[in-house]
Amino acid sequence: MTTTETNLQAELVGRATELVPLIRKQAAWQEEHRVMHDDVLQAVVDAGLMKMRIPLRYGGYEADVRTVCTVLSELSRGDGSVGWIAATMSIGAWLTGLFPDEVQDEVFADPDVRLGGSISPNGIAVPTDGGVILNGKWPFSTGVLQSQWFVHAALLADEDGSRTPVIILVPVSDMTIVDDWFTAGLRGTGSVTTVTNDLFVPAARVLPMTPVIRYGQHRSLLNADSRMWKCPFSPIASATTSAVPLGMVQAAREFFFERLPTRKITYTDYKRQIDAPLTHLQTAEAAVKIDEAEFHVRRAAERLDSKSLSGEPWTLLERGLARVEMGAACLRAKEAVDVLKTASGGSSIYSDVPIQRIERDIQTIALHGVLHPNTNFELYGRILCGLEPNTHLI
Description:
With 394 residues, the chain is α+β, with helices and mostly antiparallel strands. The chain is built from twelve helices and seven strands. The two termini are 26 Å apart.
């Protein structure tokens, strides 16, 4: 890491850390209202943290992956919902950097533009003169309530009857929002459903998904030499999203130790929980799992930064390892939260005790179709056994 990168990382991470008290102050409100609080959104925007993966020529930072992951874990330490929205917008901005430069000129004309994103191809795009007609319904549209643009995925209906996955860039104002985000966890993300009906999308805002996801091909001339776009999508998305459960479990540890000195163990002779050998075992077990989660996030980020600098090609094994690092980080964070929640006793079920929200949030994120530990471990095992991956997200 160069001196400039080190200084940028310290600056951005410092800004994120300063926002943690504000984010925590609004965490319960965000969960109740199922959306990020305006004060939190404005603070994150003012801190420049939505610009980490925006090209330099538009006032962005083109920050390295390690910086992005560290910032996201800090925001998630405030509230996992805020971290998840920021992670999604980071990925959305990166994906936008793959589109033709004239498309980027349009999108990034607003210096504070925000982009949500989803790569689940739940729409159908039918070719027409000059573009496509898009119809679809996309649940889990994280960030759409705070964004001006959204990166969606769909299936392009080819003339021979086949369907080709594509990435489509759509103004949020062209979509219908369905307020259906009533969930057990990550309620503050407001990841509602979006719908398009017979929406015309210009051809320049449609990219074939497989070349982008698997081979890093894109249509931006000005971003072609940037380190930020020299790595494939899946490893970048894996490292980015894995930072969120890491920040969540770090917060769980903080809240646990804040309550520990004043707690006893009910129906035992322990007047202070901190004196019980069981507590020592629990805190040590959780600490080791948190360290393991951090190891996987850090290694995934460092691999990306190193390979983007060297220009070395990605092997299939490295791609699978990026996915399993995400799954392992998520699993270890989830396990550590479970240990700390168990050690927190019956009083932790009250809604004003943050660890109960963190437990629900991390259970929710671990069920995500891409982050799910079982899915990622199976994928990595297939590759280790010499089989082809069973997904294009590799």
